[in-house]
Amino acid sequence: MDQKATYRTSVRRSTVQVGGSPSNMYRPEYQVEQFGLQASPRDTSKIWELMDSYQGSDKLALQQSIVHHVEYTLARTRFDFSKFHSYQALSHSVRDRLIEAFNDTNLHFHQMDAKRIYYLSLEFLIGRCLQNALVNLDLEEDYREALLDLGYKLEELYDEEVDPALGNGGLGRLAACFLDSLATLNYPSFGYGIRYTYGIFKQLIKDGYQVESPDFWLNHGNPWEIERLDVQYQIRFYGFVKKVWDHGVERSVWEGGETIMARAYDTPIPGYNTQNTIALRLWKSHPASEFDFSSFNTGDYFKALEQRQKAEYITSVLYPNDSTEAGKELRLKQQYLLVSASMQDIVRRFKRRKVLDWNAFPSKVAVQLNDTHPALAIVELLRILIDIEQLDNMSAWQIVTKSFNYTNHTVLPEALEKWGVPLIEKLLPRHLEIIYLINFLFLEKVQQKYPNNWGKLSALSIVEEEGTKKVRMANLSIVGSKFVNGVAKIHTELLKTTIFKEFFEMHPNKFQNKTNGVTPRRWVRCANPALAALYDRVLGSDKWVQDMELLKQLESNVSDPQFVRDFQMIKMENKERFVHWIRKTCQVDLNIDSLFDIQVKRIHEYKRQLMNILYVIYRYLMIKESTPEERKRIVPRSVCFGGKAAPGYINAKRVIKLINSVADVINNDHQIGDLLKVVFMPNYNVSNAQIIIPAAELSQHISTAGTEASGTSNMKFIMNGCLILGTLDGANVEIDEAVGRENIFIFGTQIEDVDNMKEKMRNTDPHEYFPQELLKVFTEIDNGRFGHNEELKWIVDSIRYKNDNYLVGQDFKDYIKAQQQVDDLYRQPNEWAKKSIYNAIRSYKFSSDRTIQEYAEEIWQLKPIKVPEPAVQKHERVKGIALSKSQQEMADKIKN
Ligand code: NBG
To answer: What is the mean pLDDT of the chain?
Structure first.
């Protein structure tokens, strides 16, 4: 494997290494004045000269840079540094290299006056940075060797890194995959988010229950971020709006209230095999610099300090809700802080252009709203343009509606954000006025198109009038955006025919589909290096990492027994790694020859982990009743669950308890032995997903049709050669098309029948509605087979009295049938392996590169801009950029 990796490394470096020493790579030069960059009054030639080359990447240079950081950054002596310190020093050394590319990228984009895409998201679940950075910079092998000499194993140091978990689930992880693709595809872009002091809680399991513990992820420092003391913006809350007359025009001035500062922290995001390194810019709240002197002077020192603490509180913690609205004032403050700081930053960057022409704004700026959470950005940009830049309302509105786009991630009604008018009025009085203005302009158009159609007006209005008035953030987002998209075909169709039907009828061209994707860098190249090496070897290069369609070429290899064996070996190695990890984290021994059957995702009723565990009970009962002859034919299974429940989501938490109670009984039943094991893996997160997913043989994506917008782990599983047991929901529908029905296990009610089946469920006696197999399972739970615990009964109660809204009872029989097909196939290892391979090599559509390319072309109108590569000889690189005459002469001289 090492040999292959080295081979790949040399393939990627060959363009720049010929004839040059890798420690002497020159940086591009930039012609400062010509491009309107701030030229320093000083003579900077000396500085340019000192910064003209990149840090070396030969073994000695890497070792020197690591020990340099041990001594000068960490201030450790050479006798006194632990594995953690080595991780820190290593990270700082990698960070130096990231920063070089990062600075060059920023300079280049500025010089090219590039249009940029700004991805606004309250969540970025980026996962660990070290391995990803090394892989993308093509330095993994070099550092591995450099470290071995110093007595460290690179993989062990990977484990020292905390997993920054600034997101809940799919939505935040999607944002992270998108950044990786944006960087890799050379799109000028920025991610904007919040630097929460506490990420998503750590999940502990005590007595079978979920217990939440705070995730203070910054405890050990964060070498990957760059604190920008000079990038800070004032953010105002509360106060009042004053109207003033200015040259015959009424202007609004928002004053009073509280102000705090948002400070930028940048994490460089490197692309794969490119210099392009973009920024994830996260905001942290700080106290405004003005100290509360009145309190201070009256001697109330502590009151003055309190104000400061209140400011820091705003970005202190991520709301742990997934697909449910939180509706708290602090959450609204977080949303506003993100959008206000980001829009101020975007406007500042735009204003640095030579000529200020506001009409050019949409040709330089595209903003993507990741769900409605940052929807106030629309209003904030209007406020900046109207109140501060003094544009008239209509021009400002034109600019805004050409710059924003909105992605919807769910049709679940409980997730659609609405903010009470009184709260917005109190916290953001000027924004409420602007929202009313937008609504007025929009409803006038509705009235023109559908005169006096009150039904339309009330469905389309941004303000909901029933009860306490509320602002519907989805309506605001649609009205303020150029394009609106869903995240999988079936989901986009649902948007058009259900929740956004009226909008679709009015503006059909506004709606697009952009099926989600995941990055093959993290989810194959980093998580499954052995599979990546197999691809490298068979395809002859690592180009597939950037162009997943190349995997098509492997179709014919499926009939090559050696290829199939190699693939099986890799799966086995990944299973071993997983078994080891499960032993360590869950104290359960898994049978490596059993079928590894995995469901990992947030715990939610619509995702139906309940159906899975009820089936496990059914399977357990079957095994108990089987004859010795029958037992011989039973396929051994290890059923593994993972996922967090929102702390306030009682039913979800009970499902966790049920899984653990069932696991206790089954895993300790000696009659069962290795035939069935059940594990609940605590604290599912990005870094353990990188161990879990490559080991999976079957993964379950079994939501009720029409509830899962897309799902993205389904894509990661197939990329790693895993079969899906799933419903025709979300992206499963497209996975089914891509891999072929013979390579996936599909079951359950289809979307067009869901309403009828719910109706049937409500009108049928539960004893007839639920199949016998399931009633038997209910009885066992009722009888205390899994513990005498009221809660276990309550879970059953959550579906058994004509309240089975997610159709567990309806789909159960079909689910059992599909499970039998799984067993039948697993008895034929070769067939199973082939189908797994088809899943892996036909997964190319689900690369986030494809998704991002579609966004860039069809929504953002964005062109890639490649940052100049390092040069072997001084000044050679400059050719990539417009050269001045003297520079050209110089370059020619060196060449000749
Ligand atoms: C989630 C959906 C998933 C989808 C991700 C990313 C929210 C609101 N939605 O199905 O539930 O894969 O978004 O699009 O978190």
So the answer is: 93
What is the residue type of 841?
I
Q: Return the ligand 1 atom nearest residue 322 CA.
A: 15
174 lines ligand 1 (CB under 6 A): yes
Determine if ligand 1 sits within 6 Å of the CB of residue 708: yes
pLDDT in tens, 429-472: 999 999 999 999 999 999 999 999 999 999 999 999 999 999 99
> Per residue in 511-553, pLDDT tens?
999 999 999 999 999 999 999 999 999 999 999 999 999 999 9
Ligand 1 centroid distance, CA of 820 (Å): 30
DSSP β-ladder status, 676-681 and 637-642: parallel
3-state SS class at 232: strand
Residue 374 Cα distances to 175, 176, 197, 387, 789, angstroms: 13, 16, 19, 20, 43
- Measured at the CA of 105, the angle between CA 101 and CA 106, to 5 degrees, comes to 125
Rounded Cα–Cα distance for residues 162 and 219 (Å): 9
Does 421 score more than 90 pLDDT?
yes
Distance (Å) from CA 742 to ligand 1 centroid: 27
**CB distance 322 to ligand 1 below 6 Å:** yes
Tell me how far apart the alpha carbons of residues 222 and 88 are, in angstroms, rounded to a whole number: 9
- Is a pLDDT exceeding 90 seen at residue 653? yes
Q: Is the pLDDT of residue 22 over 70?
A: no
Any atom of ligand 1 within 6 Å of the Cβ of 710? yes
Q: How far is the CA of 635 from the centre of ligand 1 (A)?
A: 33
Question: What is the pTM assigned to this prediction?
Answer: 0.95
17 pLDDT exceeds 70? no
In the annotation, is 712 catalytic? yes
Question: What confidence tens digit (pLDDT) does each residue in 789-823 have?
Answer: 899 999 999 999 999 999 999 999 999 999 999 99
Q: Ligand 1 centre from 642 Cα, in Å? A: 17
| Pocket of ligand 1 contains residue 121 by CB under 6 Å | no
**Cα 269 from Cα 182, distance rounded (Å):** 9
The minimum-distance atom of ligand 1 relative to the CA of 168 is 15
886, with CB counted inside 10 A (0-12, 13-18, 19+), is exposed
**Which string of b and e fits 185-219 if b means at least 16 CB within 10 Å?**
bbbbbbbbbbbbbbbbbbbebeebebeeeebebee
The three-class DSSP label of residue 550 is: helix
- Ligand 1 pocket check for 325: Cβ under 6 Å: no
Give catalytic status of residue 607 as yes or no.
Answer: yes
Distance in angstroms (rounded) separating the CA atoms of residues 497 and 495 = 6
User: In 3D, which of 408, 411, 412, 384 has the Cα closest to residue 396?
Assistant: 384
| Minimum CA distance residue for ligand 1 atom 3 | 711
Catalytic residue among 601, 637, 653, 657: 601
**Residue 213: both structure tokens together:** 């513990």
CA distance 841 to 558: 10
